[in-house]
Design goal:
The protein is of the alpha/beta class. It folds into two domains: 249 residues, Rossmann fold; 152 residues, N-(1-d-carboxylethyl)-l-norvaline Dehydrogenase, domain 2 (Orthogonal Bundle). 44% of the residues lie in helices and 14% in strands. The protein has 18 helices and 14 strands. Strand 1, helix 1 and strand 2 form a beta-alpha-beta unit. Bound molecules: nicotinamide-adenine-dinucleotide and SN-glycerol-3-phosphate. The site of nicotinamide-adenine-dinucleotide has 24 residues, from helix 1 and helix 5.
């Protein structure tokens, strides 16, 4: 609830992305800024990748007598007029304090909290366009489930966003099918936020904001030693765990705060590969036992990947105890888009890309590209054999193997450990 604040400024929040999850998270934070007007400004700017959209005839918004319905309209105009993202989150009423904006630089202007939430294949280009446009003391949260693989290696999006924009960026990930969260069905999520110590200090209310610099948190230290962060001016409420949690926690969306940014990010990214494997075996009609075997092996490979390549910060418990780990694998292997499309692809004998195009109305699978990206990283490290499930999914997508080959391909995981 709103209470008196000793701070003369409030945080302005922007959401970069407005797909199925982007719009849902905008709804969550729009509700929370209304409930905490002592900490946050009331308007949420939400960046929309602009497109024309024709309201379908079976939509409750279709009105044959209105120009809004008879020809395609800008999606931003529809969202702002109807307070609903009719394309990516149809049927969900959005709080009126969400403003859809087609200009990404204008969306983030003056915002101290930036929430990145779009399919991972697009974030690099979007961040390139934001260089120099964000206020220097802004802080970010990445809700993106994927990893960034390049010649330099495998990078978390929290890291690459942070480096590109010269800001600290944490991560949010969990067992969170967007449509269920949007309908306010209870779930949990994990937020990893480990900002520079200066963000948690109790502020000195009066005086100059004096943007000073601080070292990056340990996760990023080794990779960008030269990067210096601007301090959050004392006029703002501190961006500590409590205030970050306040922005996201709802009665139906329970937040657990942790510090393991790598574990949270990797859990969200790698489970998408596992969900494809689960869809493949389910598509074959192999039943729940086969799916559970895939889940068990998937968790093992997630932990191994994290401890092998992000050992300086990653905790195995993040995968086995948090919503972003085991819970997200279970959810994703039950009702996620990657699971559903992989299952249909096997049942219908069609390429998964064709199913994605037909079924998802513009939403994007993350597992297929992540399987290729993880494969290219493992190949560069000559470690393909160490991750047979991830490799099996890649080889099935590539046409080198069939879903029926999965038991043979993951057999190494079935041998005794004694
Ligand atoms: N949908 C879910 O249930 C869910 C839940 C948790 C996390 N996530 C993760 O959240 C992230 C965002 O997923 P989502 O579900 O919001 O997206 P989505 O799958 O609904 O993707 C569509 C979005 O991509 C945008 N887009 C299309 N082409 C683009 C381009 N060239 N440049 C920029 N944007 C473009 C569209 O405008 C739309 O906003 C993903 O990493 C996903 O794994 C999704
Ligand atoms: O629909 P998916 O497969 O992208 O999964 C959605 C969420 O990540 C589940 O937590």
């Amino acid at each position: 609830m709103a209470s008196l604040s000793i701070h003369s400024k409030k945080h302005k929040v922007a959401v970069v992305g407005s797909g199925n999850w982007g719009t849902t998270i905008a709804k969550v934070v729009a509700e929370n800024v209304q409930a905490h007007s002592d900490l946050f400004e009331q308007e949420i700017q939400m960046w929309v990748y602009e497109e024309d959209y024709q309201i379908p005839k079976d939509s409750k918004h279709y009105d044959a007598g209105s120009a809004l319905s008879t020809k395609p309209q800008k999606l931003t105009q529809l969202i702002n007029g109807l307070h609903e993202n009719v394309k990516y989150l149809p049927g969900i009423a959005l709080p009126k304090n969400i403003v859809a904006n087609p200009d990404v630089a204008d969306t983030v202007k003056g915002s101290t909290i930036l929430i990145f939430n779009l399919p991972h294949q697009f974030i690099g280009r979007v961040c390139d366009g934001l260089r120099g446009k964000v206020i220097p003391y802004a802080r970010g949260i990445s809700c993106i489930k994927g990893v960034s693989v390049s010649d330099q290696g495998c990078e978390l999006f929290s890291e690459s966003i942070g480096k590109k924009l010269n800001i600290y960026c944490g991560a949010l990930s969990g067992a969170n099918i967007a449509n269920e969260v949007a309908l306010e069905k209870w779930c949990e999520t994990t937020i990893a936020y480990d900002p520079p110590a200066m963000d948690s200090k109790q502020p000195t209310p009066a005086g100059s904001p004096s943007a000073s610099s601080a070292d990056l948190p340990s996760l990023q230290k080794s990779e960008s030693k030269s990067m210096k962060l601007a301090a959050l001016p004392a006029e703002y409420p501190p961006l500590n765990h409590a205030n970050v949690r306040t922005l996201f926690h709802r009665p139906y969306f329970h937040v657990r705060m942790v510090k393991d940014v790598a574990g949270v990010s990797l859990g969200g990214a790698l489970k998408n590969i596992v969900a494809l494997a689960a869809g493949f075996v389910d598509g074959l009609g192999w039943g729940d036992n086969a799916k559970s075997a895939v889940i068990r092996i998937g968790i093992l490979e997630e932990v191994k990947f994290g401890m092998q390549f992000f050992s300086h910060t990653c905790r195995s418990e993040t995968f086995t105890e948090e919503s972003c780990g085991v819970a997200d694998i279970i959810t994703s292997c039950s009702g996620g888009r990657n699971f559903r499309c992989a299952k249909m692809a096997v049942k219908e004998g069609k390429p998964i890309g064709e199913i994605e195009e037909r079924e998802l109305n513009g939403q994007k699978l993350q597992g297929t590209s992540t399987a290729y990206e993880v494969h290219s990283f493992l190949k560069a490290m000559a470690m393909e054999k160490e991750f047979p499930l991830f490799e099996a999914v890649y080889n099935i997508l590539e046409g080198n193997n069939k879903p029926e080959d999965i038991p043979k391909l993951v057999e190494a995981h079935s041998t005794d450990d004694v």
